[in-house]
Structures are given as C-alpha cells and as structure tokens.
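Lecture notes, structural biology module. Today: joint structure prediction for complexes of two components.
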Amino acid sequence: MNNLRLRLSQNLGLWLGVLLFAILYTLYSTLHPKGWTVDVFVQNSNESFALIMVSMAQTVPVITGGIDLSVGPMMTLVNCLASVLVSGSPGAIVLGIVACLAAGALAGFVNGCIVVFGRIQPIIVTLATGAIYIGLSLFLRPSPGGKVDDNLSWVTTNALAEMDNTYHWFPNGAPAWFSTTIGKLPMPIILIVLIVLLVWLPFRNTVTGRGCYAIGSAEGAAYMSGLQIWRSKLAAYTVGGLFAAFGGLYLALQTGSGNADIPQAGAYTLNSIAAVVVGGTSLFGGTGGAVGSIFGALVLRAISFCFRVFDSNGPLGFLANPLLQPIFEGVILLLAVSLGAARVFRIKNRLTLFS
Amino acid sequence: MNLRNSIDRPTLIASSFIVVILLAGTLYTIVTQGTATFIEPTYLLQQIKIAAFLGIVAAGMMMVILLGHIDLSVPWTIAATAMLATAVGGAWAVPVGLAVGLAVGLANGLGVAFLRVPAMIFTLGVNAVLRGLMVMLTGGFAPQSNATPLMVWLATGHPLGIANSVIVWVLISAALVFMLTRTPLGRYIYATGNREAATYLSGINTRLVLIGGFVICSLSASLSGLLIAGYTSKAFQAMGDAYLLPAIAAVVVGGTNILGGQGRYTGTVVGTILIVLLQSVLSVAQMPEAGRQVIYGLVIIVMLLVYGRSSTLRG
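The predicted structure, tokenised, for the full assembly:
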C-alpha cells in the first residue's frame, strides 16, 4: 500500500495527464456522431503520432536538464529524406527506412557531441543545429513532393487488419479471432507501444538511461558518483533524434510526400515542449518520462479534436466558432502549464523556489 | 575607462567577423559584378536601418536573458502591437501599442516571478493566447488598417540625415546601457541572473526585478512592432515570427551567457549587426534559402565554440 502510494505520488504529473486526456477524449467521443468506432480511433491516432514521437524526442534531453529545440527540424529532415528513399523494391524500402532512422539518430548524436564536447548550452546548440537541419531539408526538398511507397503508407495509417489485406499474411484469409479482435487495433497505436517497449523502456533501464535522470537531478553529484556524464548526455540526444526520426518517417507515410515546412517544424518543437510539461516532466530535469509525454501530446491533440465536434446550436455552441479555437487552445495550454504553480503555495521555505 | 576594459573578447571577435563577412562579400561582388556594394556607405546605412528593428527586440531580449530566463512571446507581442495599433489608428495608435507591450510584460513577469512557471513554457503559452486573441479580433484575415503617419515617420523619416528608426535604437541603447551600468536596477538584474537566492537574501525584491525585466523586453518588442508596421505601412499575422530566433542568436553571439548574469550591451549591438549583415550578404550572393539556413546555424555554433564555452564540471 505504501509502495503504491509512493509510486502514485512520484508520477503525479503523469496521472494528471492521463486523467485530463481521458476526460477530454470521452467528451469528444461522446459528442462525435461516429464516436467510439474504429474509424475515428484510426484517424485520431494518425493525427497524433508525429506529435507524440516529437514529444518523446523532447523528453529525453529535458530529463537531463537540457532542451532540444531541433526536434521539429530533425522530424522535417527525416520527413524529406523518407520522401526520397522510402519507395521502390521491398529491399530498397527497408534500407530506406533504416537510413531514415539512422539519419535522425545521427542528427541527435551531432547535437549531443556539440553539447558535451563543445560545452555550449543545449538551447543555443539546438537552435543553431535546427537551422542547419532545416537547411538540409530544403536541399532535399526545395518544394513539397516526393514519393513514398503506397502499400506501406496504407498499412501504417490503418487498422492492423489492413496489414493482412495488403500483404496477405494468412494464405486462407484472416481467421475470425484476428479480424474481430487485434485486427481492429490502429497501426499507429501498435507502433507506439512497440517503440516504448523496444526503445524507451530498455534505454531507461540501462545505467546510461538512469544516468540521464541523475544528471537532471544534480549533475555535480552524478559526476562525483562516477557516472559517465558524457555518455548519458550523448545517448539522451541520440535517442531523442531517433524518436524524432520515427515521427518524420510516419509523417512522410501519412502525407505520402516530403515537405520542408519551416513554420510546421517550429510549431512541432513548441508543442513538444508543452506536451512534455503537461505529461509531468519537469523542465528543470530529473523527473518524468517519455510515457507521460505521450499523454501530454494526446491531451494537446484531444483539445483540438474537441473543438471539431461541438454542436453550434447546443449549449456549448459558442465553442464551435473556429475563430475562437486558437484562443481557447492558448488559454488551456497556459492553464495546464500553470498547474505546476500549485507547489508555490505549499512550500515551507521560500529559498527552495530559487533553484 | 580604457579601451581594453570597454571591449570584451566576444565583442572583439564578433566585430572582426563582421569585417570578414564584408570583405568576403565585397570580393564576391567585385568578381561577379565589378562593384564593391558592401562597403558603400548607402548600403551600410540601409543595413543599419534594417538592423534597428532586430536590434530593439534583441535589446529587450537581453534583459530577460541576463535574468536567466527567456521570452518566447516576442513574435505575437510584435504582431499584436502592430495589429491593434493600426486598428485603433489616429493619435492613440502608439500609446495603445505600447500598452499591449506593458500588459504582455506584466503577464509574463507575474507568471515567472510569482507562479514560478519556467519562463520558456509560460511565455510560450502567452504567445499562444496572444495569437488566439488576434485571430478572434481580426477574424483570421490580414487586418485592413494601415499604419498611422506617426508610425511611418518613426520608421522611415529621416529629418536628421539618418533614419528615425536608427535614432530610436540609439536612444533605447543609451537608456539601457545607463540602466545596466549606472542604476541599482541594472545591478539587481545582473545579481538576480547570477544567483537569485543570494540576491533575495541581500534584501532585494527579486520578483519586482524579474517583472521589470520582462516588461522591458515586451515594451521593446512592442516598439519594434510599431516601427516594423510603419516600415511596411501595414500589420500582418506572421510579422513577428522572423524576429524571435535571430534576436536570441544576436544576444548570445554578442557574448551574453544564456544562463544569465553575464554579458555586455555592446555585444548585443555587435551581434545584431552581425546577424543582419550575414543574412543580407548571403541573399545578395544569391545563396538559396537552404544554404543560408545551414551557414546561419554554423556561424552561431562556431562563434560560440570560440568564446561561449562553459567551464568543465568538477564536482
């Protein structure tokens, strides 16, 4: 019981994010005429995937007490690269995907190298490398376009059952146990679960990954405890780049093209910071995790989903006005990030505020 | 004060780099067009005039960075000021515009100083709210109103031989240098940026210092918004977006520590001129947008590798 309470209090931010998302999404699905159906889940998870990945990418450097303003540009770079590489024969597609993920990880690695060995503050490093990555994206795609494999595009943006319809997994047609149960799961959700299980959790449980939390809590203490600070930091930025690459790759599959859109890259970066905070990770570092950021990103997305379904004649009709949507989104964002201010009223010693 | 004290290393290196940019640009134009455009006084004066808009934003941003915080609400402070000022029009345009800056600065300052929300995320939220407000007020379309004659005069008039925007920049710079080096508020800003707890224990109300810093930053952004609207003779939605990152870059390239507490105003001015000249020379040299972005990023990293490195961690 005590253990449970401890775990609950340690992850309070995460649970707040989950709760907020549950409330918002229940509201949305109830108001939506086709709510609680597979089609709506698939569509919503498609629209959320890239932001979720970019938010996870942002989380890892934030845990070390840094920040990565280049997550949007890294996503854009991989998006443009995918529109060049991910098409053709099956072998070429697989190689293209590997190259895209490697490119994202390399971009993150470069960020990490400059932060660790150049000893420049992360916010400035990633501001500058962000410009470089956008420049490289523009070299690859001066104007929107390119091609991504259609079949792959189709299966990754639909329910799992389409995987069988496209690639014919089962020679005799899909059995009932498949098409009525797991066949209905949207692919993006499966991919997110796989990425969490195969990338995030293993990383977090290594000494290097735990080191990221230690650095974020107290870098000096982590150093004196003999942790390899440089290794953890390098790994944090590299893993961040890898997550951003997943987002960029998916964006290419979703839109079927590459687009070096500078405002879009900026919007993703800024939203990722908001998602990280809503998901319970402190910008001062040392707490939180990528799973929280998934729900943080979902909260942000659910807010904009909700505005689509308000009946303009109903009691909440004034919310349906599209011109009011940006201000409500802004106010909700501001309120959500101000939730953390509650600690100001609980502290016993004012000096703890100034850390 | 002798020369060695008044010019620090970052300023010196950044200044030399400006000369390098100009020489390289001149070499390029001599080879390709047979003219030395970049060292002609008319060209340089034109660049200084353009640099004034960024310079004023960067001046305000520097105060917030000196405090160890950052203001990401600058883009829509600029746009909101310009849009409201042009919408109100007449004699009230400029006061209304500056009132917008004051309000935004107070909101940011209260959020950071009293609620203790990290500045990066709070100002981001304020930016989103401002954007929402403007979409609500203008209906999502570009506002129709034009800049008032006073705003146009402030931005483009030149009764004294140099453009008024440059004179505004010089006046603001003089005021800020005086504030930073000769008034208690300046000392408090550096002290708070270095260690807020120590400053608080010395009996200084650091909350007011923080609010003051954010108000100065937003007021500068507003003033710049009025000038930009006067220069382009109208206000438009995304007019502030191009000023946020270059302003931060100008402050940092000028040698101000992004963690706060360290930096000289001269550096910010030199940093601003460097960024503006770099952009101008690259576009005159017909470098595509892609190459411009890459070089821009590389220059910031290289400059900071030379003089912006933090000390190694030793326990």
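Point to remember: The first helix of chain B runs from residue 3 to 6.
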